[in-house]
């Protein structure tokens, strides 16, 4: 793929002359300091230039936002981390779907995405916010749609899916081209049906308990 290109979205073309892309190239990329220190841990973020704000950090990239462009985020891959081309291809195949973001621009080391607002299912459980069945059904439909586009949903867990206005959305699609099967979402659904009972839905579960469950799950699946 070329180092940089725009994507068509509703008839709008983004290129290097777009004001937001100019902000990224002139202000964000020269000053942002991120590093991948451990391959299975979130990347380390050392510096985010003002007025940019860190939205989140995963194992591959940091996601940042600019206050003048609240509808968009920039996903910047850490140096040496693979997957940028693959994620751009995933978004190309997905196109427009209500449960996914859209890639508006593919730059050198970063993607510009339409921002998805909401709360992750992980945080819902941590804060005792009930998750309606509709959210689970929406995510199921979204993953089936991805499969219909030749993708293989992978690494779909509570931190990578969100609830927005009572509906489910998928936040992270970076691993949707991995060839191996992944039963993580099916296991999460089974846990929802077996253990997520009405008396427990408003009970906050501490983060250390959820992290212990996550680590135990990884050991069980080895």
Automatic annotation (TrEMBL):
Keyword Kinase: yes
Origin organism lineage: Bacteria, Bacillati, Bacillota, Bacilli, Bacillales
Gene3D superfamilies: Transferase(Phosphotransferase) domain 1
GO MF term (any one): protein serine/threonine kinase activity
Native species: Paenibacillus oleatilyticus
Keyword Glycoprotein found: no
Name under which the protein is recorded: Serine/threonine protein kinase
Protein keywords: Kinase, Serine/threonine-protein kinase, Transferase
